[in-house]
Amino acid sequence: MICKFCGSEAFRKSGITRKKQRYFCKSCGRNQVVGDNREKHSKMEKYAAVVTRIMD
Ligand SMILES: [Zn+2]
């Protein structure tokens, strides 16, 4: 994923909010949540979320 604020790809996980993974951008210091922008959720995104949970 890419930071919607600064375009960086340097993230670390920053906890779970509303059942979604929150990430902290190491570049600009902002938090953001994957899939929190009301876009349609593709099957691929759901799959990725499951994989992330398993790897966590
Ligand atoms: Zn950023």
Summary tags:
56 residues, alpha+beta, 23% helix, 29% strand, binds zinc ion
What does this entry look like structurally?
This protein is an alpha+beta fold and 56 residues long. It has one domain (11-55). Helix content is 23%, strand content 29%. It is built from 1 helix and 3 strands, in the order E-E-E-H. Strands 1-2-3 form a 3-stranded antiparallel sheet, with no helix packed on it. A hairpin with a 2-residue loop joins strand 1 and strand 2. The radius of gyration is 11 Å and the shape is globular. Bound molecules: zinc ion. Residues 3, 5-6, 8, 25, 27-28, 30 line the site of zinc ion.
Strand proportion, as a percent range, falls in: 25-35%
* Helix content, binned percent: 10-25%
Topology, number of strands:
3
Shape: globular
- Count of discrete domains: 1
Topology (SSEs and partners):
Blueprint (H helix, E strand, L loop, with lengths): L10 E7 L2 E6 L5 E3 L9 H13 L1
Antiparallel strand pairs: 1-2, 2-3
This protein binds zinc ion.
Zinc ion binds next to loops.
Summarize the structure.
With 56 residues, this protein is α+β, with helices and mostly antiparallel strands. Helices cover 23% and strands 29% of the residues. A 3-stranded antiparallel sheet has the order 1-2-3, with no helix packed on it.
